[in-house]
RNA sequence: GUGGCCAUAGCUCAGCUGGUUAGAGCAUCAGAUUGUGGUUCUGAGGGUCGUGGGUUCGAGCCCCAUUGGCCACCCCA
């Protein structure tokens, strides 16, 4: 018998970890609901054509495909073998696989909206907290199964939504104690305008991918790669100017206007960025701390469907972690599913990464640990019957209790309480039973007192 | 998908240029202690050294393959 193991990149979560994760989930959920979002759930798997081609070519390879059942049916052998040959050639074939695990929450949401747009009240504000799967190779902060927490607004072009979403980021991170985060924003239209000047719209993907690497590889390497992509000296010069835009947010805006101001597309993008940056609705702290909400012209984001404002949230530099959240506006996501004209904007939190950041910065409050408050010692049949009765009454008062499972010596029962960090022990032995009282010991202080049963039931257990 | 590093007790690790019976700390269990835990002391259990093959008189150590983990690239949360 082989040792049991987990699939690569997946994890079990023990009780301690689940508590901490729930703390994050609850915080995010509360903020989402505070802002008027309602929860949606979609299946773990989707029809494969719902997902393929939505994220870009590279990402299609990272979608987990589910093998069809019944491939061993003798009547189908010939067809299956032909289909499988196509799979070997890198194609996705319905005869072999027609379902896949979802890759993110946005596309399934768009599918849902496309299917139900007749019934929905717009703007539709939904949030979704579910696992997604990527066949990526695991490494730091990257797993094959991980949770996303998304909030999206569809059916509204208003930039108010962007402002709201930026506020949600702020509120969540502050509540979690991640006070040193940075929310970077940019606009796809700036990148489109830049591409328009430098080699045409079809170069946009290449350009965005390359400039996204600026902070990692530096300017020279970026210029080198642009040259390899077929851009000429003049075009690269423009991009260099674009990349060297620095300073406060207003300073960057004015430089962008100078560089791209001739382009109608860019002007629209800059206007929208200015609206967000200057919005009186953002918390005061944004304006006090310019670095919190930062205009970053080099921010690109890989996902193809973004068309407007894009967001990315990062923790402080000292925590070497990729982005802990991202999002943006898309003009026409449901158009992919035959229902055009529904724009949307959304954000996503990466809970697994937020967890790692909080662990590293020791941000979990001590009281996320909510275990048993009271352990009733088991000192015999008559004794434990009384203990059981009292325990149930305490439970009715929402005090978390348990009765030790067998009558063993004190030593063991104390050590059990110790290990489970149970603060109180209630001892009812033959002596107490006779005197109709009990011994209550505070294990943190090492102090104990004798209480009547009535007193025990009204004790606060703090 | 590409590259680098690693794999020894439940956990963290030691184990010399290949040489007798593979060690430590922590954890676990038992006892000192049948109504008072955390400390202490004593003892015990626990390993086909990730897996499969090879070289050798002899392999935890060397070689090949394989699986898994970590890290980086691509990409991303």
Secondary-structure content class: alpha+beta
- Main sheet properties: 8 strands, mixed
Distance between the termini: 48 Å
User: What is the CATH superfamily of the largest domain?
Assistant: Bira Bifunctional Protein, Domain 2
Tell me the CATH topology of the largest domain: BirA Bifunctional Protein, domain 2
Report the CATH C-level class of the largest domain. Alpha Beta
Q: How many extended strands?
A: 16
Low-pLDDT windows of residues: none
Number of helices: 19
Describe the protein.
This protein has 462 residues and is an alpha+beta fold. The protein has 2 domains: 15-360, BirA Bifunctional Protein, domain 2; 371-457, 3-Layer(aba) Sandwich (Rossmann fold), CATH 3.40.50. It has helices spanning 15-34, 48-51, 57-60, 77-88, 106-116, 160-176, 188-197, 204-211, 214-217, 219-228, 233-243, 249-260, 264-278, 284-288, 351-360, 381-396, 410-419, 430-435, 453-457; strands at residues 38-39, 45-47, 65-66, 99-101, 124-133, 145-154, 182-187, 293-295, 309-314, 325-330, 344-350, 374-376, 401-403, 424-427, 437-442, 447-452. The strands form 3 sheets. Strands 1-5-6-11-10-9-7-8 form an 8-stranded mixed β-sheet. Strands 13-12-14-15-16 form a 5-stranded mixed β-sheet. α7 runs antiparallel to α13 and α12 runs antiparallel to α13 (264-278). The model has no long low-confidence stretch (mean pLDDT 87). It binds one RNA strand of 77 nucleotides through residues 2-3, 5, 8, 56, 58-59, 61-62, 104, 132, 134, 136-143, 146-148, 209, 301-303, 321-326, 348-354, 377, 379, 409-418, 425, 427, 429-431, 439, 441, 443, 446, 448.
């Amino acid at each position: 018998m082989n040792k049991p193991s987990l699939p690569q990149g997946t994890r079990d979560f023990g009780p301690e970890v689940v508590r901490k994760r729930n703390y994050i989930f609850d915080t995010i959920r509360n903020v989402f609901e505070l802002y008027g979002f309602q929860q949606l759930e979609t299946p773990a798997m989707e029809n494969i054509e719902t997902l393929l081609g939505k994220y870009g070519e590279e990402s299609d390879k990272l979608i987990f495909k589910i093998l069809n059942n019944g491939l061993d049916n003798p009547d189908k052998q010939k067809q299956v073998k032909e289909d499988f040959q196509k799979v070997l050639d890198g194609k996705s074939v319905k005869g072999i696989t027609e379902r896949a695990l979802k890759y993110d929450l946005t596309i399934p949401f768009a599918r849902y909206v496309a299917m139900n747009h007749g019934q929905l009240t717009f703007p539709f504000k939904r949030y979704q907290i579910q696992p997604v799967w990527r066949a990526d190779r695991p490494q730091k902060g990257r797993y094959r199964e991980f949770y996303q927490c998304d909030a999206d607004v569809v059916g509204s072009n208003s930039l108010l939504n962007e402002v709201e979403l930026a506020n949600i980021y702020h509120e969540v991170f502050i509540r979690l104690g991640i006070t040193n985060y940075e929310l970077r924003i940019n606009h796809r239209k700036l990148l489109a305008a830049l591409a328009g000047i430098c080699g045409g719209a079809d170069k946009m993907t290449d350009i965005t991918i390359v400039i996204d690497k600026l902070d990692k590889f530096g300017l020279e390497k970026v210029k080198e790669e642009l040259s390899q992509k077929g851009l000429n000296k003049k075009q690269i010069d423009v991009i260099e100017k674009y990349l060297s835009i620095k300073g406060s947010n207003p300073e960057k805006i004015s430089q962008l206007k100078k560089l791209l101001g001739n382009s109608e597309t860019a002007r629209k993008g800059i206007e929208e960025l200015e609206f967000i940056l200057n919005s009186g609705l953002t918390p005061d702290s944004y304006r006090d701390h310019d670095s919190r909400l930062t205009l970053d012209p080099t921010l690109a984001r890989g996902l193809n469907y973004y068309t407007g404002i894009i967001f990315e949230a990062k923790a402080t530099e000292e925590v070497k972690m990729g982005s802990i959240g991202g999002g943006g506006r898309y003009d026409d996501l449901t158009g992919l599913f035959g229902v055009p004209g529904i724009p949307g904007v959304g954000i996503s939190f990466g809970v697994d990464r937020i967890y790692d950041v909080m662990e590293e910065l020791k941000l979990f409050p001590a009281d996320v640990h909510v275990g048993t408050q009271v352990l009733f010692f088991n000192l015999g049949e008559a004794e434990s019957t009384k203990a059981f009765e009292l325990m149930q009454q305490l439970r009715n008062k929402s005090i978390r209790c348990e009765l030790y499972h067998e009558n063993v010596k004190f030593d063991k029962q104390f050590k059990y309480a110790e290990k489970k960090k149970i603060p109180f022990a209630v001892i009812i032995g033959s002596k107490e039973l006779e005197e109709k009282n009990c011994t209550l010991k505070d294990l943190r202080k090492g102090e104990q007192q004798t209480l009547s049963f009535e007193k025990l039931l009204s004790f606060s257990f703090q």
